[in-house]
Amino acid sequence: MPIKVGDRLPNTTFYVMTPDGPKPKTVDEIFKGKKIVLFGVPGAFTPTCHRNHLPGFIQNAGAIKAKGVDQIAVTSVNDVFVMDAWKNASGADGKIDLFLADGNGDFAKGVGLDVDSTGIGRGIRSRRYSMIVDDGVVKTINVEESAGKAEVSGADNLMTQL
Amino acid sequence: MPIKVGDRVPNATFRIMTAEGPKPKTSDEVFKGKKVALFGMPGAFTGGCHAKHMPTVVQNLDALKAKGVDTVAVTTVNDPFVLAAWQKAIGSDKVELLGDGNIEFAKAIGLTFEGTAIGLGTRSQRYSMLVDDGVVKILNVEQPAKFEVSGGDTLLKQL
Questions:
Q1: What is the mean pLDDT of chain B?
Q2: A-chain residues within 8 Å CB-CB of B50?
Q3: Active-site residue A49, yes or no?
Q4: What is the C-alpha to C-alpha distance for residues B6 and A61, in angstroms, rounded to an integer?
Q5: For residues A64-98, b (16+ Cβ closer than 10 Å) or e, as one string?
Q6: Which residues of chain B are within 8 Å of residue A102 when distances are taken between CB atoms?
Q7: What spatial distance separates the first Cα and last Cα of chain A, rounded to whole Å?
Q8: Which of B49, B64, B77, B131 is catalytic?
Q9: How does residue B117 score in pLDDT terms, banded at 50, 70 and 90?
Q10: Would you call B54 an interface residue with chain A, using a CB distance cutoff of 8 Å?
């Protein structure tokens, strides 16, 4: 059931932080007419996400965009306030364009990449993955098997696929 | 059905961040034989919690302890990684942050609210409590979107 190459992203609603506070933004509004690299992580501030996965995309942001990508986005099942704090703490501002808060897990469930992390006290979360999305359609998808790794879903691998 | 004065706090397991990573902490370990000032908040880093509620806890922490409180704690439906980041942001490691990531404690005391409309999922309501050896002695539950009765300063006056 997970989303695959050729599928259109489900039209769920994320929350983004703006100068006027949290605002909803639909998948259509974000992805329409653009080439976007989207990576999903199990949780803001969690070790692999914070030390391995996100930094890789921050470092390679310029190179990724030089290959025709319009925006780089990250999504996690966290609320918009936590995502904003994470953006500020990671120095991602200006490199990662969009921090998409999937607080209710609607997007993660909608793409079939949700995982039950209740056993470690985290409720429903996203799996770790990276995607190239063109005008809302998935062109490439890399789902990490183990949440504690960021290998197939990392920026290095994605760069070879652009 | 929400918890009231005279009730015993339910058994639940929180998750806290330690030097060795996330660890569980049971309500017994938190409350047994101690006087605990517990503040419930909708979310780490969120507007009211971060800008209004938490500062009143940090500012009144020493005064609360001078009046016999053993532990000053805040609980939210967040995981311990987020709470560790919040601990740094609030600038005090004397406030104990109890992660209720599975909403176990908040549901058991009947003080949750639906933040789904603003993408927050199910969260804890805003409140303050004084718990003595596991029994609720004082309870102040805030009305939605307000911040009037649940601050550290109010609880201090009630001690």
A1: 93
A2: 81
A3: yes
A4: 57
A5: bbeeebebbbbbbbbbbbbbbbbbeebebeebbbb
A6: 119
A7: 25
A8: B49
A9: confident
A10: no
Question: B53 and chain A: CB distance < 8 Å anywhere?
Answer: no
Say how many residues make up chain B. 159
pLDDT tens figures, A44-97: 998 877 777 888 999 999 999 999 999 999 999 999 999 999 999 998 988 999
Across the A:B interface, residue pairs with CB atoms under 8 Å apart total: 82
Q: Give the nearest partner residue to B85 out of A45, A121, A123, using CB atoms.
A: A45
Quote the CA–CA distance of A103 and A36 in Å, as a whole number: 21
Answer yes or no: are the C-beta atoms of A122 and A24 closer than 8 Å. Answer: no
The alpha-carbon gap from B82 to the nearest alpha carbon of chain A, in Å, equals 6
Considering only the beta carbons, identify the residue of A13, A81, A123 that sits closest to B101. Answer: A123
Q: Summarize the confidence of residues B52-59 as an average pLDDT.
A: 92
Using alpha carbons only, what angle is made at residue B86 by residues A85 and A17, rounded to the nearest 5 degrees? 20
Q: What is the pTM of this model?
A: 0.83
Contacts of A122 in chain B (CB under 8 A): 79, 101-102
Give the gyration radius of chain B's Cα atoms: 14
* Side chain identity at residue A103, one-letter code: G
Q: Give me A7's structure tokens.
A: 């599928």
Which residue bears the tokens 């006087």? B35
Cβ(B127)–Cβ(B141) below 8 Å: yes
Q: Is the pLDDT of residue A128 over 90?
A: yes
Are B104 and B110 in contact by the 8 Å Cβ rule? The answer is no
Contact B5, B139 (CB under 8 A): yes
